[in-house]
């Protein structure tokens, strides 16, 4: 016999969110910076994160530029550092299930890291984050 109490709490009605960030969003006089891309509500479920580079990131003497997705303290929890400078592979998809059981909203963050030059040396770059989210009942 199926456990209907559990099934009644399964994530319902997935929604798809697209969030676009550019080099100016990550700009900082530092080699690293993380920004919020989505606020996952209490009992929210994040299932899929797709990073899709619309315009490669570059500028100045930046040697490498990567972006990961996670939460504070675990900035690569959902997507490991992804090269957004070379354009060799311009899409990264991860399929993790994260259930926010903290009782409060959790900030989903994108972390940018460069080498040689600070993030504020970038003169171009745009990335789309596609998120599949739902809510426990």
Structural commentary:
There is one protein chain. It contains two helices and eight strands. The chain has about 140 residues and is mainly beta. Strands 1-8-3-6 form a four-stranded antiparallel β-sheet. The longest helix has 4 residues, at about 5. The chain is elongated, with a radius of gyration of 17 Å.
**Percent of sequence in beta strands:** over 45%
Give the overall shape.
elongated
Major sheet size, sense and barrel closure: 4 strands, antiparallel
State the low-pLDDT regions, or none: 1-7
- Computed over alpha carbons, the radius of gyration is 17 Å
**Strand and helix order:** HEHEEEEEEE
Spatial strand sequence of the major β-sheet: 1-8-3-6
* Number of helical stretches of at least 4 residues: 2
Average per-residue pLDDT, rounded, comes to 90
Total strand segments: 8
CA(first)-CA(last) distance: 21 Å
SS-derived structural category: mainly beta
Helical residue percent? under 10%
Please tag this protein with its features:
2 helices, single chain, 137 residues, elongated, four-stranded antiparallel beta sheet, mainly beta
Describe this structure in a few short sentences.
The protein is built from two helices and eight strands; from the N terminus they run H-E-H-E-E-E-E-E-E-E. The protein is mainly beta. A four-stranded antiparallel beta sheet has the order 1-8-3-6. The chain has a four-stranded antiparallel beta sheet with strand order 2-7-4-5, with no helix packed on it.
């Amino acid at each position: 016999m199926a456990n209907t109490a559990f099934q009644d709490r399964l994530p319902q009605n997935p929604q798809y969110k697209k969030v676009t960030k550019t080099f100016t969003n990550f700009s900082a006089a530092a080699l690293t910076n993380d920004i919020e891309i989505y606020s996952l509500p209490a009992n929210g479920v994040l299932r899929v994160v797709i990073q899709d580079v619309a315009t490669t990131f570059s500028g100045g003497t930046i040697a490498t530029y990567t972006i990961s997705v996670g939460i504070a303290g675990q900035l690569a929890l959902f997507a490991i550092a992804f090269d957004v400078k070379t354009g060799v592979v311009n899409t990264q998809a991860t399929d993790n299930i994260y259930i926010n059981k903290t009782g409060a909203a959790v900030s989903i963050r994108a972390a940018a890291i460069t080498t040689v030059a600070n993030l504020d040396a970038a003169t171009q770059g745009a990335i789309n984050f596609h998120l599949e989210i739902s809510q426990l009942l």
